[in-house]
Automatic annotation (TrEMBL):
Gene3D superfamilies: Transcription factor LuxR-like, autoinducer-binding domain, Winged helix-like DNA-binding domain superfamily/Winged helix DNA-binding domain. Residues 184-249 form the HTH luxR-type domain. This is LuxR family transcriptional regulator. It comes from Pseudohoeflea suaedae. InterPro entries: Sig_transdc_resp-reg_C-effctor, TF_LuxR_autoind-bd_dom, TF_LuxR_autoind-bd_dom_sf, Tscrpt_reg_LuxR_C, WH-like_DNA-bd_sf. It comes from the Bacteria. The keyword DNA-binding applies. GO terms for biological process: regulation of DNA-templated transcription. Keywords: DNA-binding, Transcription, Transcription regulation. PROSITE patterns: HTH_LUXR_1, HTH_LUXR_2.
């Protein structure tokens, strides 16, 4: 624990995310892991209920083309580890050795075969994944990989599981503070300040007429901002626009405003 306390203090000293990841990976290697996979997504699922492609995917000692397969070719959506990680907050072991039963076994189907084939081809057969679910719906996983088909991997990794779990959460907390807006917003939607403001008031149940009085603009101008935001969010109406903007974390608190005032 003293060592992890020192690591936590050191994490706050890094100026860049890549430096932080390099340092964390070095610590993981001393725990017996040979590769690191870290992903972050503002929301686990998209509007259609599919696993969302991460806005950040960082790899260490992993084949370079994994980023292309997981993000551009959308293997992330069918990754058995990710499917399990969205359903639990507990660290878990996984193994793609067909003779070893782990919690991902129930997700190994014809649909997920491309992922299984890729990982087996690159000898990334076993690992431990720590899911990180945040209060606003943010979602991340920190994964330590062990190369090769090793049936005794779980027994080996059990000895460091508690420390690895703590390390993963300390790392993510430090990493989160380094994210910029492009990482935090998965939708790619860009609303103007006035569109965000009008939607924020609308989220409290205010009508266009009520919003117009607060922001000192005409009712048609408020309606224009609300309609423009709805188009950008591909929403059918104002209510759906508010829901989608909230899911995409595009609405800011309204300082000094009380819905009961």
């Amino acid at each position: 624990m003293d060592q992890l306390h020192a690591i936590a203090e050191r994490m706050t000293s890094w100026q860049t995310l890549d430096d932080l990841i390099d340092d964390t990976f070095d610590t993981m290697r001393h725990m017996g892991f040979e590769a690191l996979i870290y992903d972050y997504t503002p929301l686990p699922c998209d509007m259609n209920g599919r696993l969302e492609i991460p806005t950040l995917l960082k790899l260490r000692n992993v084949t370079d083309d994994m980023h292309d397969y997981w993000c551009e070719r959308e293997y992330f959506r069918i990754d058995p580890v990710q499917r399990l990680a969205t359903q639990t907050s507990v660290p878990f072991f996984w193994n793609y050795d067909p003779d070893v039963e782990t919690k991902i076994s129930e997700f190994l189907t014809d649909d997920t075969k491309p992922v299984c084939d890729f990982l087996r081809e690159h000898d990334m057969r076993a690992g431990v994944t720590v899911p990180v679910h945040m209060p606003r719906g943010d979602y991340a996983t920190v994964t330590g990989v062990r190369f090769g088909a090793r049936k005794d991997f779980q027994a080996d990794a059990t000895r460091v599981l508690a420390d690895f779990n703590l390390l993963a959460h300390l790392f993510h907390e430090a990493a989160y503070g380094m994210f910029d807006e492009t990482v935090l917003n998965s939708s790619g939607v860009r609303l103007t300040d006035r569109e965000r403001e009008c939607l924020a008031y609308s989220s409290h149940g205010l009508s266009a007429k009520e919003i117009s009085r607060i922001i000192d603009r005409s009712v048609p101008t408020v309606v224009m901002h609300l309609n423009s935001a709805a188009r950008k969010l591909n929403a059918k109406n104002r209510t759906q626009a508010v829901v989608r903007a909230t899911q995409c974390r595009l609405l800011d608190p309204l300082p000094g405003f009380s819905p009961n005032q």
